[in-house]
């Protein structure tokens, strides 16, 4: 039996958070974080597609599109990832990404502390992210550069963990958390993630 996906607009949830209404049952575990994010000025600019729990394969094919407001402020910075004037090499999973210390330091206090000090005099810095998936690091870096990214459900948890580990500024973690909470994951899908 095919079940049609239902789209739930998060605008109504944001309105409910502003009015301090009781949350829907499914969102009660994360309601305080959602409400705090809305009251702090975060906007919810996504829709959640609710799929039947038995459709684990379809859930893992789901992707979240995240637009970063930095791209509007500095539209020319996104293409500079792996481009001109790079001064740091970020290595993960056998791949090396060329980046700019100033971008990494501005968006992550962890990167800032890694890049200041011992590497101050070095013309070229190198950072290795041990145990990190190259695809996840690429998504993280593209987000740090203000690019819109499409996050497959299969990488969302890893991206959340990496953004948390590097204390990324902005709302990436909040939006990933809300999206992951809204996905009706079956127990077998959790092993895939």
TrEMBL record:
Residues 86-153 form the BTB domain. The keyword Repeat applies. Keywords: ANK repeat, Repeat. InterPro entries: ABTB1, BTB/POZ_dom, SKP1/BTB/POZ_sf. SMART domains: BTB. Pathway: Protein modification; protein ubiquitination. PROSITE patterns: BTB. Gene3D superfamilies: Potassium Channel Kv1.1, Chain A. It comes from the Eukaryota. The keyword Repeat applies. One of its GO terms (cellular component) is cytoplasm. PANTHER family: ANKYRIN REPEAT AND BTB/POZ DOMAIN-CONTAINING PROTEIN 1, ANKYRIN REPEAT AND BTB_POZ DOMAIN-CONTAINING PROTEIN 1. This is BTB domain-containing protein.
